[in-house]
Specification:
single chain, four-stranded antiparallel beta sheet, 11 strands, 118 residues, seven-stranded mixed beta sheet, globular
Length: 118
């Protein structure tokens, strides 16, 4: 099993920055990919960015050039640096860990609210 604890959300003005953190514990060596998803009110949860153990990253088009995902394997933590935030980035952000060799493959954090005011 994998446990994920997120931190770093909050309220920021448009154009500002926030950094989200997600600390993983448990069967961390089974994790292949870690990522961030978000869900705005009335919308489906969507991928924001993910990063593999080897450091390969993938971003949603809407955040390319503004957000950066990184991973500290020594601290089992993944970060999402969010710059040039827009009101449409407002959502609950969820950390995800994909561990294909475990009986449960997908793990989720509790979510952290990011609100961007105009």
């Amino acid at each position: 099993q994998v446990q994920l604890v997120e931190s770093g959300g909050g309220l920021v003005q448009a154009g500002g920055s926030l950094r989200l953190s997600c600390a993983a514990s448990g069967s961390i060596f089974s994790i292949d990919v870690m990522g961030w998803y978000r869900q705005a009110p009335g919308k489906r949860r969507e991928l924001v960015a993910h990063i593999t153990t080897g450091g390969i990253t993938n971003y949603a088009d809407s955040v390319k050039g503004r957000f950066t995902i990184s991973r500290d394997n020594t601290e089992n933590t993944v970060y999402l640096q969010m710059n040039s935030l827009k009101p449409e980035d407002t959502a609950v952000y969820y950390c995800n860990a994909f561990a294909p060799r475990l009986s449960t493959r997908n793990y989720w954090g509790q979510g952290t609210q990011v609100t961007v005011s105009s």
